[in-house]
Design brief:
Elements lengths: L1 H18 L2 H23 L3 H11 L2 H7 L10 H28 L1 H5 L2 H6 L7 H28 L6 H28 L3 H25 L3 H4 L1 H6 L10 H23 L23 H28 L13 H7 L7 H33 L2 H6 L5 H30 L6 H9 L2 H17 L6 H15 L7 H4 L18 H23 L4
Helix pairs in contact: 1-8, 2-5, 2-8, 4-10, 5-8, 5-9, 5-10, 8-9, 9-10, 9-13, 10-14, 14-16, 14-18, 16-18, 16-20, 16-21, 18-19, 18-20, 18-23, 20-21, 20-23
């Protein structure tokens, strides 16, 4: 028994050493940005009239679908409204962090042969999985405590210590649930891409369930971990029960995953991998076929997610048109100026946010080239005299097609559930207008893969900056020139703004230049 604990302790220290930088960055970003956003609310909502007005605006079905139900209407404060607006996004962020963390130390290590080397030593079969889930639990709790402490220090109106810790531990508990779910997926599937795709797909499904449940008042929002995390009602009820339930769910899922891991064979999953053909097709033996094969899961998965998100937001469009047009705070957040219909401004806002989300699969597919390089597969391909620019160009072509597919499915989802309130032509025009901005994000990824492969994480820093500026820009009165520094800040927001082709041409040229420079760098540098 003592020997088992000693093995677990050594493996835990090994995980800590590998994760000391990335987990620290995740923690600082989550806790620090939570405090930063909270500090903005005294300027945004200086008095009770503005607080009440914001509460009314957030009661709109569209806002409920996006961020959750409004609670504590009789005791609204800066802190409670901050929690109602921001908590859902931190639950999603911590979920993504845990998915990447667990997958990296389980299925990815197993797929790349690292665990086989470790298991050649006197290490138990479940030591690695146990160590990484314990580490994930500790990191989640530390992030929750840090978030609670910083919120208490910022101390905006309505802040309480209990509310701050309810907010922080809701983040911790949801993160632990997704850590358990990813560990379970690592036992079910034999490929790392399948694990991450399944886990991220569950996250999207849970978000849609929460949105539908909150709008309709059904039990779906409680079944979803994201919806249950919002039930803590931070800075109002500060409920402990949802947090305890989430941690209990995480423990049950983790135990199930460990039991499965004990009986499955190393290198395989419970769900057997589909057997491939004895001989690859002519298409698959081409660079484009290879790029398409390894990217199809990302493209189709994110396309389906955007379709479902579009459908969930389109389903509430019929309730927006009659919303109070005189709400000044609504005008500020959504951009209504009294001359455009609220529904048009809502559609414009949805396309801004969802188009930024649509850039994620484009970046992922582009960065997949670097992932294949890290796994040592590119050396085998280039040994067959495949031109480097041809292979990288194939990934770029797939990402280009994915961007069009994502915007098309988003528009179709909005159209099918809007009950005729939104014309398809307008939706397609609004969505496709964002393609050049998405291509700029892809071009930046190519540039980093070509010249600075170790710094590809910078593209996500740009994404985070862009999301913050575009999502919160109007609320905190960010100057227009700061928005213009982002690709998405230069796109005409249809159907509210007039369509202009010049900025789209400029963005396309920028994306092209970035891609060309990146390809040249990839041709010149050493592989691996």
């Amino acid at each position: 028994m003592n020997n088992n604990f000693a093995q677990l302790g050594r493996y835990f220290r090994f995980v800590v050493r590998r994760e000391r930088i990335s987990s620290l960055i995740w923690g600082v970003c989550i806790a620090g940005s939570a405090a930063m956003f909270a500090a903005l609310y005294p300027g945004l909502l200086p008095g009770q009239p503005e607080i009440v007005q914001m509460g009314v605006m957030m009661s709109n079905p569209a806002m409920v679908a996006m961020m959750g139900n409004v609670y504590g209407a009789d005791q609204l404060s800066q802190a409670s409204l901050m929690a109602q607006e921001c908590l859902i996004w931190y639950l999603i962020t911590i979920a993504v962090m845990n998915i990447f963390l667990i997958n990296r130390h389980t299925r990815v290590d197993e797929e790349q042969g690292r665990l086989e080397i470790i298991r050649a030593l006197p290490v138990g079969k479940l030591t690695g999985s146990t160590a990484v889930i314990v580490f994930a639990l500790g990191v989640n709790i530390l992030i929750g405590v840090a978030t609670a402490g910083l919120l208490s220090l910022v101390n905006i109106g309505g802040t309480t210590v209990a509310g701050a810790f309810a907010y922080g531990f809701a983040i911790s508990a949801v993160g632990f649930v997704f850590a358990g779910l990813t560990l379970l997926a690592a036992q079910l599937f034999s490929a790392a891409n399948a694990v991450s795709g399944f886990s991220l797909g569950l996250m999207v499904l849970f978000y849609i369930m929460r949105a539908l449940g909150d709008v309709s008042g059904s039990v779906l929002s409680v079944i979803s971990p994201l919806g249950l995390g919002l039930k803590v009602e931070a800075f109002y009820r500060d409920a402990v029960t949802p947090i305890l339930i989430l941690f209990a769910e995480g423990v049950l899922i983790t135990v199930s995953a460990l039991l499965i891991g004990m009986v499955r064979d190393h290198g395989t999953g419970v769900i057997p991998a589909r057997k491939g053909r004895a001989h690859a097709s002519r298409f698959l033996r081409s660079p484009l076929g290879f790029a398409g094969r390894v990217s199809q899961g990302t493209a189709l998965g994110w396309g389906a997610a955007l379709f479902l998100l579009g459908a969930s937001y389109g389903s509430v469009c019929g309730n927006i048109d009659g919303f109070v047009a005189g709400n000044e705070l609504m005008k500020k957040v959504i951009g209504a100026d009294g001359t455009n219909a609220i529904i048009d401004n809502y559609v414009a806002m949805i396309f801004v946010v969802m188009s930024m989300v649509a850039s994620v699969p484009v970046v992922l597919i582009t960065l997949r080239m670097h992932g294949e390089e890290q796994r040592g597969r590119l050396e085998q391909i280039f040994a067959r005299s495949v031109p480097r620019e041809q292979l990288l160009g194939s990934f770029l072509l797939i990402s280009l097609v994915t961007s069009v597919l994502a915007e098309f499915l988003l528009a179709i989802g909005l159209f099918l559930t809007a009950g005729g309130a939104l014309p398809l032509g307008m939706l397609l025009k609004a969505g496709l207008s964002y393609l050049p901005a998405i291509w700029v994000m892809g071009g930046l990824a190519v540039l980093l893969v070509g010249w600075l492969p170790k710094l590809t994480v910078l593209v996500w820093a740009v994404f985070g900056y862009t999301f913050f500026v575009m999502y919160f820009g109007r609320v905190v009165d960010v100057p227009k020139w700061i928005m213009s520094l982002t690709p998405f800040g230069n796109v005409p927001q249809l159907p509210v703004q007039e369509f202009t082709v010049v900025p789209l041409v400029v963005l396309t040229l920028i994306a092209l230049v970035l891609a060309v420079i990146g390809v040249q760098g990839f041709k010149a540098r050493d592989i691996g």
